[in-house]
């Protein structure tokens, strides 16, 4: 049970730390991962909110927490990177659908960034598929519920 809580915290760190660091850095080091390139459809590959600063801060926070709780730095780094890769995949799909980077896509905004790292956790750690599924759903639902609150508090730019 403790490991599922730790994995949930790692998901929150990997996906939340880029938002916190962006707020603290006030635009510094916000180089877009896609280099502001466009796909053949004329739309951005990922969009301006997917930055190297966010990738580094999200993956590193997950790795440091993972090392601290005894799951290992390398596992935490892989876990965090996969969460952010899932987030980038959903951004890529949203751009192909013509949605702006601030547009809400219920479940698409939450599931890839949680399911990808949790799939690796099932393979790497003694975590049951049922427990991993529960963590993914809990993360998605908490993201849906708390994002508007964080927006009202001025922590998030957008309410989702």
From TrEMBL:
Would I find Transmembrane among this entry's keywords?
A: yes
Pfam families per the record? CarS-like
Q: Record's PANTHER family? A: CDP-ARCHAEOL SYNTHASE
Q: Where do transmembrane segments lie in this chain?
A: 65-85, 106-126, 132-150
Respond yes or no to whether keyword DNA repair is given for this record: no
Question: Could you name the domain of life of the organism this protein comes from?
Answer: Bacteria
Protein name as catalogued: CDP-archaeol synthase
Query: Keywords, A to Z?
Result: Membrane, Transmembrane, Transmembrane helix
Q: Which organism is it from?
A: Marinobacter lutaoensis
């Amino acid at each position: 049970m403790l490991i599922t809580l730790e994995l949930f915290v790692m998901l929150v760190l990997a996906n939340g730390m880029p938002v916190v660091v962006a707020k603290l850095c006030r635009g510094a080091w916000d180089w877009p991962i896609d280099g502001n390139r466009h796909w053949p459809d004329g739309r951005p590959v990922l969009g301006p909110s997917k930055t190297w600063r966010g990738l580094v801060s999200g993956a590193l926070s997950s790795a440091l927490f993972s090392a601290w709780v005894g799951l290992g730095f390398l596992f935490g780094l892989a876990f965090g990177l996969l969460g952010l890769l899932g987030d980038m995949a959903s951004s890529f799909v949203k751009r192909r659908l013509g949605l702006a980077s601030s547009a809400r896509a219920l479940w698409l905004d939450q599931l890839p960034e949680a399911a990808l790292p949790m799939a690796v956790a099932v393979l790497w750690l003694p975590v049951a598929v049922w427990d991993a599924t529960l963590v993914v759903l809990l993360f998605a639902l908490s993201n849906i519920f708390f994002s508007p609150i964080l927006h009202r508090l001025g922590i998030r730019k957008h309410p989702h």
